[in-house]
């Protein structure tokens, strides 16, 4: 698949003839220098953008041809996004941030609250449920964002530089959480500059200029079905 921006002499091949299969349950790290196309690729996988050419399939369903409305529903129901800058609502508490998507999807307030509290407990923030983001550390905010990303029981969690704004201690907290998700069988695609995240992945892809320069399936990966390499 391809994603191009601009045209003629200004053409940027942000994603250039990439062919990617991610088996269910795999934890993939995508690395590479700034501008090599990591975010562009992630946006294609999550239906935030459409490819210029090629196809995107998620769990047996072609998504690049869906209508805008269907794509929005797919993102809401099936994908969990985690961003570098957290993207929490500043005026909502931690638990309100986590339950918001479920409420918007029509879930009952009581169920949404119960599930949000469970998720906050899972990310180790049960005692911070009523804090506003401004009263949380960076690592705690990102863990709230991860709890939010899990609220729709996503087919895949897509994270773009999730530790990019975090100090070392907070990075370790978030890493531990991703490791737990990996062990629990959550399919994960994490764009990162941090070699420590790559170390908890099943597979590390290095991108250069929109293409894959390397694609390593790490030893000891037990969750992969189909042809590894
Ligand atoms: N909306 C856009 N319009 C034009 N060019 C774009 C657009 N978005 C990205 N690009 C270009 O596409 C290329 C890939 O960008 P992308 O954001 O995917 O890189 P990245 O690997 O995520 O970089 P970083 O590590 O800095 O986040 C870059 O050359 C960038 O300038
Ligand atoms: Mg990027």
Automatic annotation (TrEMBL):
Keyword annotations? ATP-binding, Nucleotide-binding, Transport
| SUPFAM superfamilies hit by this protein | P-loop containing nucleoside triphosphate hydrolases (SSF52540)
Which PANTHER family does the annotation name? Answer: IMPORT ATP-BINDING PROTEIN (PTHR24220), LIPOPROTEIN-RELEASING SYSTEM ATP-BINDING PROTEIN LOLD (PTHR24220:SF689)
> What protein family does this chain belong to?
Belongs to the ABC transporter superfamily.
Listed name of the protein: ABC transporter ATP-binding protein
Pfam families the UniProt entry points to: ABC_tran
Q: Which cellular components does GO assign to this protein?
A: membrane protein complex; plasma membrane
Question: What Gene Ontology terms describe what this protein does at the molecular function level?
Answer: ATP binding; ATP hydrolysis activity; transmembrane transporter activity
Record domain ABC transporter: where: 4-222
What organism is listed for this UniProt entry? Micromonospora musae
């Amino acid at each position: 698949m391809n994603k191009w921006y601009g045209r003629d002499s200004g053409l940027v091949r942000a994603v250039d003839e990439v062919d990617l299969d991610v088996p269910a349950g795999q934890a993939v790290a995508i690395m590479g220098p700034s501008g090599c196309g990591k975010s562009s690729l992630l946006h294609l996988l999550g239906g935030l953008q459409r490819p210029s050419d090629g196809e995107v399939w998620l769990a047996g369903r072609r998504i690049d041809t869906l209508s805008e409305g269907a794509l929005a529903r797919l993102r809401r129901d099936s994908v969990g996004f985690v961003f570098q800058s957290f993207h929490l609502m500043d005026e909502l508490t931690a638990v309100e941030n986590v339950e918001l998507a479920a409420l918007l999807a029509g879930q009952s307030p009581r169920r949404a609250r119960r599930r949000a509290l469970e998720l906050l407990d899972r990310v180790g923030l049960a005692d911070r449920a009523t804090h506003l983001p401004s009263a949380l550390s960076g690592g705690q905010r990102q863990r709230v964002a991860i709890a939010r990303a899990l609220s729709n029981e996503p087919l895949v969690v897509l994270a773009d530089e999730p530790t990019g704004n975090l100090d070392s201690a907070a990075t370790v907290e978030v890493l531990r959480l991703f490791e737990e998700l990996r062990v629990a069988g959550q399919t994960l695609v994490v764009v990162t500059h941090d070699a420590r995240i790559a170390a908890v992945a099943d597979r590390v892809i290095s991108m250069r200029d929109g293409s894959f320069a390397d694609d390593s399936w790490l030893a000891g990966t037990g969750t992969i079905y189909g042809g590894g390499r």
